[in-house]
Amino acid sequence: MARGDQGIVLRQLNMLFSMGADGGLTDTQLLERFSSRRDHAAESAFRVLVERHGPMVLRVCRAVLRDPHDAQDAFQATFLVLVQRAGSLWVRDSLAPWLHQVAYRTASGARSAAARRRRHELRAAEFTSRSAHPGDHDDLAGAVHDEVGRLPERFREAVVLCLLEGLTPEQAARHLGCPVGTVHSRLARGRERLRGRLARRGVAVPIGLLAAPLGSAPTQVAVSAELLQTTISAAVRVAAAKGAITTGTVSAQVAALIEGELSMMALVKLKWVAVAFLVALLGISAAGIRGATATVLQSQASADEPRSDDDSPPTTRVPVTDHQAMENWWTELEKDEPEASRALLKLADRPADTVPFLKGKLKPLILDGNRLKELLVKLGSMDENDWRPAFAELEYFDPRLAVELETLMTDVGESPTRQRIVAVLGGHPADTFEGKAVILRPVDGGFNFFVTPGGAWWAEHDVARINRGQVTKKKWIRAVRAIALLEHLGTPEAVAILKEMATGHPLAQPTRAAKQASEKLGGNAR
């Protein structure tokens, strides 16, 4: 036997024996071995991980991407992201839930890239592509993977392990380190949530389908030997280069997908660090409010469920259709923590009721001339039932948006209307300080003021207070939090509300928040 052939055989034998030993290791142990070794043992450990989870990852990629080549690119990118994060990634035991999320995000990124490429195609070809209707099963598979990724972590773990990877509840219990009964409970509740969320998307799912593994035919796939070896070889090269993606290691498409996913992870991490700093430093700032709201929804999405190991049902539960409960939570959104966080979590758990409720509460900040005239007429009324609602609506607008009101003050004289306009602009009753009217004028994001004799000292100090944003932004806390909640829910109805809110006055924080949320979702409802 030639010496070169002998070396190949020896490597294959070493691989065979090491794979036999690695097959009984947990994902955590395999990942640690891959991260700490740079020999055949590392390659063997990674091979076991790909063989163990590859079919599930490929199913996710194919559910999102109908082009098989794009699906293979997303498959490779998913496992190479794992290589990049192997040294810092912590998993309880199974990588399946983490890989499912990365695979879905990566495949979604590939789908967006493909859509951008299609924009450059001929109009006729584009029309033909849109006219082709995919099979119902493909639509269902993509929707299921989308909704699985949105489940609370403990439900998602059970669903991914049992329904996507095909493990028995007993096997999943060993992976998760919990009783078998707990897995059964979480699996049942995860199925129920999936069915409800899919139903809200207009996808009717038979009970029998969610009772069977989602990896069964016709969605069951096998990773080809070529794809398996290509992925493992690329992983070994990337690991040897200490995570660097060099020319020739992978294709340009795969490299772009890896970069996109790693950038997303870095931005998310940076966002939460910045949020924590801003919340601690600024407290009530609108950016901190929106970021803190998103943090609550992302990191505590399962806090609304009982935390006991046996997942016993809660002893009390507010009815989903209880409108008064919705009103109470809406009120709590304007309060400080922890009331606002509790309200957010309660509302997030009831998207079918929350989204229509918020649609009735949130309106774009548009103060057109006709509406302004109507409000001014009511503001001049001596009947409190008329002018109080008008005052509340005008007060909601930031003083920087109230230039129209200032131009009208010279026309109304010293009337009740003038005093109430002053109160709207200043964020306070105009006659509470020695009966002196204080008028704040918006100038370049700050305020100038004039005051009748006797009230200048107070006005100077209150202008400084308002310039710090502690008055005007407080009116928008609830709206900004509600917008962050709609972004978190991401349903088609929620996206529609965000788009409508984004049409408001560009200086208003709710308008900016809605625009950012709408752009982040990209019109792609969950």
Automatic annotation (TrEMBL):
<dbReference type="GO" id="GO:0016987">
    <property type="term" value="F:sigma factor activity"/>
</dbReference>
<keyword id="KW-0805">Transcription regulation</keyword>
<feature type="domain" description="RNA polymerase sigma factor 70 region 4 type 2">
    <location>
        <begin position="143"/>
        <end position="194"/>
    </location>
</feature>
<keyword id="KW-0804">Transcription</keyword>
<keyword id="KW-0731">Sigma factor</keyword>
<dbReference type="Pfam" id="PF08281">
    <property type="entry name" value="Sigma70_r4_2"/>
</dbReference>
<protein>
    <submittedName>
        <fullName>RNA polymerase sigma factor</fullName>
    </submittedName>
</protein>
<dbReference type="InterPro" id="IPR007627">
    <property type="entry name" value="RNA_pol_sigma70_r2"/>
</dbReference>
<dbReference type="InterPro" id="IPR013325">
    <property type="entry name" value="RNA_pol_sigma_r2"/>
</dbReference>
<feature type="region of interest" description="Disordered">
    <location>
        <begin position="507"/>
        <end position="526"/>
    </location>
</feature>
<dbReference type="GO" id="GO:0003677">
    <property type="term" value="F:DNA binding"/>
</dbReference>
<dbReference type="InterPro" id="IPR036388">
    <property type="entry name" value="WH-like_DNA-bd_sf"/>
</dbReference>
<feature type="region of interest" description="Disordered">
    <location>
        <begin position="300"/>
        <end position="319"/>
    </location>
</feature>
<dbReference type="InterPro" id="IPR013249">
    <property type="entry name" value="RNA_pol_sigma70_r4_t2"/>
</dbReference>
<comment type="similarity">
    <text>Belongs to the sigma-70 factor family. ECF subfamily.</text>
</comment>
<dbReference type="InterPro" id="IPR039425">
    <property type="entry name" value="RNA_pol_sigma-70-like"/>
</dbReference>
<dbReference type="Pfam" id="PF04542">
    <property type="entry name" value="Sigma70_r2"/>
</dbReference>
<dbReference type="GO" id="GO:0006352">
    <property type="term" value="P:DNA-templated transcription initiation"/>
</dbReference>
<dbReference type="InterPro" id="IPR013324">
    <property type="entry name" value="RNA_pol_sigma_r3/r4-like"/>
</dbReference>
<dbReference type="InterPro" id="IPR014284">
    <property type="entry name" value="RNA_pol_sigma-70_dom"/>
</dbReference>
<feature type="domain" description="RNA polymerase sigma-70 region 2">
    <location>
        <begin position="49"/>
        <end position="108"/>
    </location>
</feature>
